[in-house]
Amino acid sequence: MKIREEVLNVLKSIIHPEYGEDIVTNGMVGALEVDDIGVTFALLIKRPKDPFAQSIKKICEQKIEFAFPQYKDKIEISIEAPVRPPSAKSAAKAAPKIISTDNGDIKNIIAISSGKGGVGKSTVTANLAVQLAKMGYSVGLIDADIYGPSQPKMFGLEGEAPQVIGEEGAEQFIPLERYGVKLISIGFFIKVTDALVWRGPIATNALRQILHQTAWGKLDYLLIDLPPGTGDIHLTLLAEMKLTGAVIVSTPQQVALADVIRGIEMFKSPKIDVPILGIVENMAWFTPAELPNNKYYIFGKGGAVELAKEQGVELLAQIPLVQSLCEGGDSGTPDSLQTPVSGLAYMELALNIEKLSNK
Fold first, then answer.
1. Are 28 and 43 in contact (CB under 8 A)?
2. How many Å apart are CA 284 and CA 226, to the nearest integer?
3. 79-116: per-residue pLDDT in tens?
4. Would the CA dihedral through 211, 215, 218, 223 be positive or negative?
5. Is 328:334 a contact under the CB 8 Å cutoff?
6. In angstroms, rounded to a whole number, what is the distance separating the alpha carbons of residues 122 and 140?
7. Over the Cα atoms of the chain, what is R_g?
8. 128: enclosing H helix or E strand
9. Which distant-in-sequence residues (6+ apart) come within 8 Å of 89 by Cβ?
C-alpha cells in the first residue's frame, strides 16, 4: 500500500498543460495497481483526442521509472477516453441504437465456458451459433476470449473491421455478419500477429466496451465465447449482463473434468447464481470420414456423461472429432455446415438449447 501511495505522489507532480492541475487531482488516474509484476493504470482523458495524452503518458513512464528503477519495462498505461451517453441528436441519427441487455431486445444470453483451454470451446460456440441461425433464429456472438480471439478466423473474417457509427464519445460498433450470425470480437481491433499481454483492468475495460457499444438490434440468442478458466473476464461479464444460463464444454479426459467442476461451482456460487444449462462433451470419440460408423475413444469414454449425472445437469450433446473439424476452422467454414456427422451432433445441441431456454 505504501509504494502505491508513493507512485501516486510521483503522478501528482505531472501537470496537464491545458487544465493547470496535476493528473491525480484532476481525476485522470484510474484503476491504479502496483505490485511485484509492475505498475498498471488508465490515463483517463477528459475529451476524445486530447493532444497532450501521449506526451503525458510518456512523462508518467519516465518519472515512475526514475523513481522506481525496479519497474523499468514493467509499466503499462492505457489511454481511455470518456464514454458519454449519446445525445438526443446522435441517438436519432444512429440506428440501430445501443441495446440494454434488460430491455427485451435480446431474449437469451448464453455463456459458453470451459474449465481449461484446448477442449474446443470456441469451435462449439461457432457451430452452435450457425445451427441456431439455420433454425431461423437471429443470433449474435461475442468473442470475449480477450487473450486468444479465434472467432474471426473460424468465420473467415480475419482482417475485417466493424463499421463504427455515432458521434465521438458515443460510438457504436456494427457487428460483422457471416452464415447468419452477427459477430463482434477483440480480434477485429488488433493485428493477427499482436501479442495481447494486457493485465486485468485493461482486459476487462476492453470487454466492457465491446459489451456496451455494440449495436445488435433484436436477437433471439446472444452467445458469449468466454476465455477458459475463471477470472476477471468472467466476473466482469457476470456483473454487467443478465445471463439466461451457461454451457460448459469439456472433453472426456479426467484432467479436463476436474476443471469443469470448478467452472460449475463458479456459476452456482450465491454471488453469481447463473443456471447451468448443461455440459457438452466435445471430442467424445474419433470417427474417420471413410468409416462414419466407427468410433475410437482416444480421449477416454463417457467422462462428461458421468460428470453430468454427478452434478445433476443435462448432457446437451456429444460432439465427435472428425478430420474436417480442423479444416473447417482454418478455412473459415464451420464444420457443422460441411460434415453430416458433426452437423447432426450440433443440431442436437441447438435443439436442447432451444428447449432449455424456452422453459
1. yes
2. 21
3. 886 544 434 444 334 333 334 444 458 999 999 998 77
4. negative
5. yes
6. 14
7. 23
8. helix 121-134
9. 167
Residue 1: all three cell numbers together = 500500500
- Confidence band for 126, pLDDT divided at 50, 70 and 90: very high
DSSP class of residue 69 equals: G
Residues 6+ apart with CB under 8 A from 218: 105, 106, 138
The answer to whether 175 touches 187, Cβ cutoff 8 Å, is no
Give the span between the Cα atoms of 301 and 284, in whole angstroms.
Answer: 7
Q: Which residues, including other chains, have CB under 8 Å from residue 277's CB and lie 6 or more apart?
A: 110, 244, 245, 246, 247, 313, 314, 316, 353, 356, 357
- Which tens digits make up the pLDDT trace of 247-295? 999 888 776 677 788 888 888 877 778 899 999 999 988 888 777 778 8
Look at the block and give the residue holding cell 443456471.
275
Q: Report how far residue 229's alpha carbon sits from residue 24's, in angstroms, rounded to the nearest whole number.
A: 35
CB atoms within 10 A of CB 168: 11
Residue 14's nearest CA partner among 69, 73, 77, 71 is 77
Question: Parallel, antiparallel, or unpaired for β 176-178 and 181-185?
Answer: antiparallel
DSSP H or E stretch at residue 90:
helix 88-93
- Report the C-alpha gap between 17 and 33 in whole angstroms: 25
Per-residue pLDDT of 32-64, as tens digits, reads 888 888 899 888 887 766 777 888 888 889 899
Q: Which three cell numbers stand for residue 215?
A: 449495436
Size of the chain in residues? 359
Collapsing DSSP states into helix, strand and coil, what is residue 15?
Answer: strand
For residue 39 the three cell numbers come to 505498475
Instruction: Please name every residue paired with 42 in a beta bridge, in sequence order, or none if there are none.
Output: 30, 78
Give DSSP secondary structure letters for 19-55. Answer: TTEETTTTT-EEEEEESSS-EEEEEE-SSTT-TTHHH
Tell me the whole-structure pTM to 2 decimals. Answer: 0.68
CB of 274 closer than 8 Å to CB of 246:
yes
DSSP state of 68: -
